[in-house]
Design goal:
alpha/beta; five-stranded mixed β-sheet; 186 residues; 35% helix; 5 strands
């Protein structure tokens, strides 16, 4: 905002601009921290992959959510990945951080590839929700959740996000969610 004001011929310091924005109730639109917080009352499951040798497909799947920047705002991308093959089994794009698009991705992966023995996620509210955990339980899948701040536990999905962002997202400014969906599918 300070740079924009400077281009318009106004001189104001960064902190002064921040103070005025706060006073006027104006806030920047960006990804807020702590998107991986469980809702109060949601059950947190233990981490089952510690010291486990994943040696075959469908032994362990992982899922995570990241944000995708667009020309105006951002969307959320969820992906299910097989730990052994590192293959993306299913993915969904959404404009909200609700649980529904995560469930859709899991259902698609289950329909195409069968079921894993273990399903690993972080402790985000989408993954600790009753609807999400009941879906996994109904298929008799063991639920595993990373510890708080344990970025290494879901490193394979993290590497996928890095690849997608550097080789696709950062090279384009998606005008709309359908544009992002079409480009990501390629």
């Amino acid at each position: 905002m300070q740079g924009l004001l400077k281009q318009e011929g106004f001189s104001a310091g960064r902190l002064h601009v921040a103070t005025l924005m706060k006073r006027m109730g104006i806030a920047a639109i960006y990804r807020r921290p702590n998107t991986s917080k469980p809702d109060p009352g949601h059950k947190i499951y233990p981490y089952l992959l510690r010291n486990l040798l994943v040696s075959r497909p469908n032994q362990a799947w992982a899922m995570d959510i990241t944000y995708i920047t667009m020309a105006r705002g951002f969307a959320y991308l969820a992906a299910v990945i097989d730990w052994f093959s590192r293959k993306v089994l299913a993915w969904k794009l959404s404009i909200t951080l609700d649980t529904a698009f995560c469930i859709e991705a899991v259902e698609e992966a289950l329909a195409k590839y069968g079921k894993p023995e273990i399903f690993n996620t972080d402790q985000g509210s989408q993954f600790t929700s009753l609807a999400f955990t009941e879906l996994l339980k109904s298929h008799e899948i063991a639920i595993s959740m990373d510890g708080k701040g344990a970025w290494r536990d879901n490193v394979f999905v993290g590497r996928l996000w890095r690849t997608i962002k550097y080789e696709e997202v950062y090279l384009r400014a998606y005008a709309s969610v359908p544009d992002a969906r079409a480009s990501l599918s390629r």
